[in-house]
Write a structure and sequence with these properties.
The structure holds three protein chains of three kinds.
Chain A lengths: L9 H6 L17 H6 L4 H9 L2 H11 L11 H6 L10 E6 L9 H7 L1 H14 L4 E6 L4 H16 L15 E6 L9 H8 L23 E5 H13 L1 H5 L9 E8 L5 E6 L2 E2 H6 L13 E5 L16 E2 L1 H6 L8 E6 L4 H15 L5 H18 L7 H12 L7 H15 L1 H10 L12
Parallel strand pairs in A: 1-2, 1-4, 2-3, 5-10
Antiparallel strand pairs in A: 5-6, 7-9, 8-10
Chain B lengths: L5 H9 L8 E6 L2 E6 L4 H7 L23 E4 L6 E2 L10 E3 L3 H15 L16 H9 L25 E2 L4 E3 L9 H9 L5 E4 L6 E4 L11 H6 L5 E3 L12 E6 L8 E7 L4 E7 L12 H5 L2 H4 L8 E4 L2 E4 L2 H19 L4 E5 L5 H14 L5 E2 L13 H7 L13 E5 L3 H4 L1 H14 L2 E6 L11 E4 L5 H14 L17 H8 L3 H13 L3 E5 L1 H4 L4 H15 L5 E5 L6 H7 L7 H11 L10 H9 L5 E5 L3 H4 L3 H9 L3 E6 L11 E4 L8 E4 L5 E4 L12 H12 L7 H13 L26 E6 L13 H6 L4 E4 L1 H6 L7 E5 L4 E8 L8 E4 L18 E7 L3
Parallel strand pairs in B: 1-5, 16-17, 16-23, 18-19, 18-21, 19-20, 21-22, 23-24, 24-25, 28-32, 29-31
Antiparallel strand pairs in B: 1-2, 3-4, 3-5, 6-7, 7-10, 8-9, 11-12, 12-13, 14-15, 14-25, 26-27, 28-33, 30-31, 30-33
Helix pairs in contact in B: 3-4, 9-24, 10-24, 11-18, 14-15, 14-16, 14-18, 21-23
Chain C lengths: L4 H13 L7 H12 L4 H11 L3 H10 L11 E6 L2 H4 L3 H12 L12 E6 L11 E3 L2 E3 L4 H13 L2
Parallel strand pairs in C: 1-2
Antiparallel strand pairs in C: 1-3, 3-4
Classes of the chains: A alpha/beta, B alpha/beta, C alpha+beta.
Chain lengths: 444, 858, 158
């Protein structure tokens, strides 16, 4: 029926009073503007343009406690207020649809199946920062998402939701869809801005912060797709409503992409604070480990987040709880692996990815990821040497916090957690010149 | 001779803050430091003698924080901070050498070295390599990296030793590159050139020339100088000597009028110069050198130099001793002076000679020979007989290069900056980037420098005054008051008509006029177009009107920039046939009576030579046969002379006609002082002893005077004192009191010659000597005709075709080169190559030269 | 001239859409790659002329991103994700299966120029793994049977 046959919990969301992002994602017509409008679409945008000031919009979103859903978790409304009020320079709102974090496949569902929700969220955010041009940066691999988004954008223009003097309010708003060229680093906001300016997607030092000097040296706000999709709901139903969901500091809902060794991989919208164990084992969600094997470990928030052991999965999925056990909520990409997975193999997959995606500007990330990849590969193939683990730990220390952008941190945090929780497995591989577990996942 | 430290003070004085500058006070390694707001912690440290290391930071480029070497620890901040991009704030407490910082630096160096080849024994950079120095100071003794280092490969090559010749003078070793990106950043940001790029990403990032192209822009030598390791090396230095075997000698560039500060690297025993680098002076050059400046020293070291004096006997020049040659010259000149009078003698001094040479020559002519026929202008077409008072007003104005930095409006009129004032182009570019200055160009043809222009106003060829008048009228349209006095002096046409006649869009004129009117600090530069035009008084009048109307000098600076290394000195020392009353009386005070009647300009001298009324001529360092308009005319003049004496570094077209030739020392071979376009006197120290039997100009002149019976000066210090006093007393010629009449008398072009011709220097050459520099010839070694794609299409010409170019005065054959900049019918031919006598196409009388083109078949 | 008039018109339009022309570099590379199938030096030069941007900036951007092959590729560019979520459910073995089936190694093109097989990083389909991207389309939840079907479909596709 759909382009992407992913499992979602849309039925549960439709039945719920609170869950909202996935309400219509199983309706094949939701892409169409008329259907979107009939489901209440663009009501929030009208409300904003007719009766709210930009400060009120930012305040409402700030009060809702919405935090960036791309991985950083920064309070969205607060970020909007960083744009200097008196700057005469044009402002830009950029929607970060460069979803490339391994384990994460949630933004794609929104882009393909509820594009107008994203457009509406972008528009409201643009209004909040007085921007008249908003750009949706979609990764180049998402061919279908790009098509859908462009079509939705044209429909929105033709019905007057975008363009000049929208709804007679006097506010102009233009939109562009920008296609990426294939680089994970472009999901980082300064690299995304570099890429939008036509340069290579190299990260930039902060300060200056994008909210002050971003795209074309003008104030720019970059928000994730999921974050923006929540905004119309907050405007329609109020910050107080949003706060009834989630936990005190992590309000609202989040879409978690469940993948790996579970019986029901898919995208699930749940309130923040939802039990990780429930997400993995409940029949309505993950339904347990594939082939009923034993769980070995979980990556809770995408490839950049520290691993969790089976003893740690009784944790609520929210920013604070995961931070308190030494991990991160990140993008919400939950990757599950069973007892037949070699830890060194998973780390190799990840460090190879980070090395491949490093932009190469700063020395520690550029050289460090390459070096780490070589050491891990060595150990994986039985050529590890005594002292390798200490070397890895030392290199991780020399990269963590020493780079221009968080990619360096993302590369080393999983390694540090893997060494911490499964050190004996690493030591075994070095001492015995072969990994403890031979990884060979069948393709059936 | 020059004081260290005074540059910093002068810089501060040159750029006084508009209001009281906000400062911040913070603790740096236990000391309390106060710096202007906005200073980075790194700069604050360096300015206080705390050496925070870095690779990728550069004082004139935007900080990128790529190398991570400049870590410091700042209390209350959890991570190590990169000091190059951390602004100092009040109350910050910074530790630049704590244990954490030391460990951080060790780590960065370890990462930097893991793929770096340890080529030190064979790498040119050894001894001046940042990576060597910093590893020794801050790094580990050993590396823990045990894998194969990444190597760039080249197709078909077995070895992994990389040496790609990416430009005429640059060799790249990609393996040594530590990816500080300074070369790419400098090339794009500071120079506006796009022949170098960084490709791929991650740890296979590669810096290389643009695919299929060479790195050959006019500032390319700087890229090698700023490379912190041996990734980029110069072919003129490569494998020749170790830096610690050389000595550094401070000097000044003799090719451009800014007087860039340079360092010679010489080897004493061999009496040889190995290279030139920058000696950063923020008031003049910001540490960047044009390639001419960097590689031009080779004109001094070439083995082709004149070895000894030559005397013409029976129509052939043969080597002679100095005594023979000087005696002959003194005898002949004395004869002419005594029999026919001083008016039958004349002299031409190159405006790149040092003060001592110029002053000595002036005294020899005016005092010893009682002749006022002295001139330093040997490249410009027929000059009016009466002194150019209006032009003089424009050419003697105070100008400070550093003031460009803080100007919010910069206007360039009549100059192709890359070919005339490359250093000023870099300065204006910097002003645009860091100061958001608005930049406007007003030229009769498109120039490369205008890539930074907010508007480029192109006017019809020959309509220089029209363009300026149109600008003035635009100002009046906008409401500026001329007290009703200017409009009438500009003719009957109104603004719209004048704009139309000038060829510039009226809207653009209003835009520029508005910018100048509203600008708070203006720099208005007039270029060589005025200097070399036969209508320069008229054009200068138009500029003076603009100054009065817009009040430019009251809020900035305006003037014609001197064009040669010491033309400002030559003008102030009076190497001109007609002097101001002030200067005349000064010289009379110094030397006793000099003749009352003004002398003849170069062109007038040439005219009377032909009639037999000027019989003896002394040329020092100039080559009018090659550079003066209308080669035939010059040749006829010289052939009619009784006695021609020429002193130059090499045998040239002019020395070929001389009765006596003296081998001249270059600026690198003796101590000299030069006055740059700001009027600043700078000292250039001798790097090597004179080559072969050459002598500095002032010595040659002295010898002639002594043989003549009357030595010029009692002592060297006496001469210095005279020069110093003269320069001190140099005055600025006053602006005209009123608005001036600017007559528009369009010059008709000759029938059958439809194409306007522009002649000037190639960006990699200056004058007639740089051809002898091997490195500069590697960039451009022969003349070409630069033409727009449309013009080429019209004539069905492709790049490389041989073209016959004819004017009313002569014809040449030259190769065509299709330009990416020119977009009108004007063609450009460089004058620096003796194989292509382009000056035979130029007219002495016209203000614009016209040619016709035809393809040479076969 | 390699670029068609359509491509040139599309590029010029892109250049006009953005506040600064240089932003059009990446969209233009995408347009060119869609027309030609890969990029090379001559194409960079043409793009540079069309949108008036220095040629080296186009070349730098083109080499930074992974979606632009620098050499000609087969009609169907099969990109297999080998990152962790896909690898956990057999992607590495799927690559082996495809190599066997097409009789080429990873990185190569079939002799009839129909298929090029490469492995790439995360494609954002982690919950529907293992999967491949062929040109612009995703094929997800793959099994041996489905892979056979997809290859057959592509063999006859125009």
């Amino acid at each position: 029926m759909f382009y992407s046959p992913v499992i979602t919990n849309a039925k549960e969301v439709t039945a719920s009073e609170r869950l909202h992002l996935f309400k219509f994602v199983e309706d094949p017509q939701q892409q169409k503007l008329a259907i979107y409008e009939s489901h209440g679409g663009y009501t929030a945008w009208r409300k904003v343009l007719s009766s709210m000031t930009f400060e009120q919009v930012a305040l409402e979103v700030k009060n809702s406690g919405l935090r960036g859903r791309g991985g950083a978790g920064f309070p969205t409304g607060m970020k909007w207020t960083f744009v200097p009020k008196d700057s005469p320079k044009p402002r830009y709102l950029v929607c970060n649809a460069d979803e490339s974090e391994p384990g994460t496949c949630k933004d794609r569902v929104l882009l393909e199946r509820d594009p107008h929700a994203v457009i509406e969220g972008m528009a409201i955010a643009a209004f909040a920062i007085k921007s008249h041009l908003m750009i949706c940066y979609i990764r180049g691999e998402f061919g279908y998402s790009i098509k859908v988004m462009e079509a939705a954008m044209h429909d929105a223009y033709s019905k007057g939701h975008l363009g000049k003097n929208i709804y007679g309010s006097g506010y102009d708003l233009e939109m562009l869809v920008f296609t990426g060229g294939g680089a994970y680093i472009c999901g980082e906001e300064t690299a995304m801005i570099s890429s939008l300016e036509g340069e290579k997607g190299l990260a930039r030092i902060r300060p200056p912060f994008p909210a002050i000097e971003g795209l074309y040296a003008c104030p720019t706000i970059v928000n994730n797709v999921e974050t923006l999709a929540a905004v119309p709901h907050i405007i329609n139903r109020g910050a107080a409503w949003y706060r009834t969901m989630g936990t005190e500091k992590s309000t609202g809902t989040k879409i978690f992409s469940l993948s790996g060794h579970v019986k029901r991989p898919g995208n699930y919208e749940v309130e923040l604070g939802f039990s990780l164990r429930k997400l993995l084992y409940d029949p309505a969600y993950g339904n347990g480990i594939l082939n009923d094997k034993k769980l070995k470990g979980v990556i809770p928030g995408g490839a950049s987040t520290p691993f969790l052991t089976p003893e740690m999965i009784d944790v609520g999925l929210d920013y604070e709880s995961l931070a308190s056990i030494g991990s991160m909520l990140g993008s919400g990409g939950v990757i599950v692996f069973d007892e037949d997975t070699c830890i060194i193999w998973t780390i190799y997959k990840l460090i190879h990815f980070f090395r491949h995606e490093s932009c190469g500007k700063c020395t520690p990330c550029r050289e460090g990821t390459g070096w780490l990849e070589q050491i891990v590969s060595n150990i994986l193939h039985g050529n590890g040497k005594p002292g390798d683990l200490e070397k890895i730990e030392s290199l991780c220390e020399n990269i963590l916090g020493r780079t221009i952008c968080p990619l360096g941190d993302a590369a080393v945090m999983p390694i540090q957690s893997a060494l911490k929780h499964w050190r004996d497995e690493w030591q075994y591989a070095i001492d015995n010149h072969k990994p403890m577990v031979t990884t060979n996942f069948a393709f059936v | 001779m020059f004081k260290e430290g005074s540059v910093a003070e002068e810089l501060k004085a040159a750029n006084p803050p508009a209001k009281a500058v906000d400062t911040v006070t913070f603790i740096l390694d236990g000391q309390s430091i106060t710096v202007p707001k906005g200073t980075s912690v790194l700069e604050a440290s360096l300015n206080n003698n705390i050496h925070v290391p870095s690779f990728c930071w550069h004082p004139k480029l935007k900080s990128v924080g790529a190398c991570r070497m400049c870590y410091v620890e700042i209390e209350k901040m959890p991570k190590l901070m990169v000091s190059c991009s951390t602004e100092a704030t009040n109350g910050m407490v910074v530790h630049t050498n704590s244990d954490l910082v030391k460990r951080g630096r060790k780590a960065v160096l370890e990462f930097t070295l893991i793929n770096h080849p340890l080529d030190c024994p064979t790498c040119d950079k050894g001894g001046e390599c940042d990576l060597q120095d910093l590893t020794f100071a801050h790094g580990y003794d050993d590396s823990r990296f045990e894998f194969q280092k990444y190597r760039f490969t080249e197709e078909g090559k077995q070895s992994t030793f990389d040496d790609l010749r990416i430009g005429p003078e640059i060799v790249l070793n990609r393996n040594r590159c530590i990816l500080c990106f300074k070369c790419v950043r400098a090339n794009k940001e500071a120079f506006g050139e796009y022949d170098l790029g960084a490709y791929e990403r991650g740890n296979i990032t590669e810096i290389n020339a643009a695919p299929g192209e060479q790195v050959d822009n006019p500032f390319s030598g700087n890229l090698v100088e700023i490379c912190p390791v041996g990734a980029l090396t110069n072919t003129d230095w490569r494998y020749k000597i170790r830096v610690w075997l050389t000595e550094q000698v401070p000097s000044i560039c003799p090719f451009t009028s800014s007087g860039s500060n340079i360092l010679f690297y010489k080897e004493r025993q061999q009496n040889q110069i190995y290279r030139v680098t920058s000696r950063r002076n923020d008031l003049i050059d910001d540490g960047w050198l044009a390639d001419v400046t960097r590689y031009g020293y080779q004109i001094a070291t070439s083995e082709d130099r004149l070895q000894s004096p030559l005397i013409k006997k029976n129509g052939k020049q043969a080597p002679a001793t100095w005594d023979e040659a000087v005696t002959l010259v003194a005898k002949k000149f004395k004869e002419i002076a005594e029999n026919k009078g001083g008016v039958c003698l004349g002299a031409l001094a190159a405006p790149s000679l040092d003060n001592a040479a110029l002053h000595s020559l002036n005294k020899l002519m005016r005092h010893n020979f009682q002749s006022n026929n002295v001139d330093f202008r040997g490249e410009y077409r027929m000059l009016p007989k009466i002194g150019d008072t209006v032009y003089a007003a424009l050419a003697s104005r105070p100008f400070k290069i550093a003031d460009i930095d803080t100007s919010d409006v910069v206007v360039v009129f009549g100059s192709d900056l890359h070919k005339e004032h490359p250093n000023e182009y870099l300065r204006i570019r910097k002003a645009k980037q860091f100061n958001r200055s608005r930049v406007f160009f007003i030229n009769p043809l498109a120039t490369k420098a205008a890539d930074i222009a907010d508007a480029e106003l192109i006017y019809a060829v020959g309509g220089d005054e029209l363009a300026l008048n149109a600008l003035a009228l635009a100002g009046i349209e906008l409401g500026l008051s001329d007290d009703g006095k200017l409009k009438g002096k500009l003719g009957t046409a109104n603004f719209a008509e004048t704009a139309l006649a000038s060829g510039i869009d009226a809207g653009e004129l209003k835009l520029v006029a508005k910018a100048i009117a509203e600008g708070r600090k203006i720099t208005f530069i007039c270029g060589e177009l005025i200097t070399r035009s036969s209508a320069r008084e008229n054009i200068s009048a138009a500029v003076c009107n603009l100054n009065k109307l817009f009040g430019i000098e009251n809020k900035g600076q305006i003037g014609v920039l001197a064009r040669h290394a010491n033309s400002a000195g030559a003008a102030r020392l009076g190497l001109l046939p007609e002097l101001s009353d002030n200067l005349k009386s000064e010289l009379n005070n110094l030397w006793g009576k000099t003749p009352e009647a003004p002398g003849l300009s170069t062109d007038a001298m040439f005219s009377v030579m032909k009639k037999g009324e000027l019989n003896g001529y002394l040329i020092v360092g100039a080559n009018p046969m090659m550079l003066y308009p209308d080669r035939q005319f010059v040749q006829d003049a010289f052939k009619a002379l009784d006695f021609l004496v020429v002193a130059d570094l090499y045998e040239t077209e002019t020395t070929a006609l001389a009765d006596v030739v003296f081998p001249l020392s270059s600026w690198a071979e003796y101590n000299g002082h030069y006055v740059n376009l700001e009027g600043r006197v700078q000292f250039a120290e001798a790097a090597i002893k004179p080559k072969f039997e050459s002598k500095p100009a002032h010595e040659i002149v002295s010898l002639i005077a002594s043989k003549f019976g009357r030595p010029l000066f009692g002592s060297a210090s006496e001469m210095q004192a005279e020069i110093t006093n003269l320069l001190k007393s140099a005055t600025v010629t006053a602006w005209p009191n009123d608005y001036l009449q600017v007559t528009i008398s369009p010059e008709s072009r000759p029938l059958d010659y439809p194409v306007p011709l522009m002649v000037g220097d190639d960006p990699h050459h200056v004058g007639h000597l740089t051809e002898k520099s091997i490195s500069l010839s590697n960039f451009v070694s022969e003349a070409y005709m630069e033409m727009s794609p449309d013009l080429a299409a019209k004539h069905k010409i492709s790049s490389g075709d041989q073209i016959r170019v004819e004017s009313e005065t002569g014809k040449i054959i030259v190769k065509a080169k299709i330009s990416s900049v020119l977009d009108s019918d004007t063609v450009f031919i460089p004058r620096n190559f003796s194989a292509t006598p382009v000056n035979c196409l130029l007219s002495r009388k016209r203000r614009t030269d016209w040619v016709r083109l035809s393809k040479v078949q076969g | 001239m390699i670029l068609t008039a359509e491509s040139v018109a599309a590029m010029k339009q892109k250049a006009a859409e953005y506040p600064q022309r240089k932003s059009a570099i990446l969209p233009c590379l995408t347009i060119a790659c869609q027309q030609v199938g890969h990029l090379n030096e001559s194409i960079y030069r043409e793009i540079a002329k069309v949108i008036h941007i220095p040629y080296v900036e186009i070349a730098e951007a083109a080499t930074f991103y992974t979606l632009f092959p620098k050499k000609p590729v087969g009609k169907h560019l099969i990109q297999v994700c080998h990152n962790i979520s896909c690898a956990l459910v057999g992607a590495d073995n799927m690559i082996g299966y495809l190599e066997e089936k097409l009789n080429i190694k990873k990185g190569e093109t079939t002799p009839d120029n129909k298929f090029t097989l490469i492995s790439v990083e995360c494609l954002g389909s982690c919950s529907t793994a293992p999967m491949v991207q062929v040109n612009d389309e995703f094929y997800e939840n793959l099994t041996r049977v489905k892979v056979d079907q997809v290859i057959e479909e592509l063999k006859t596709k125009n």
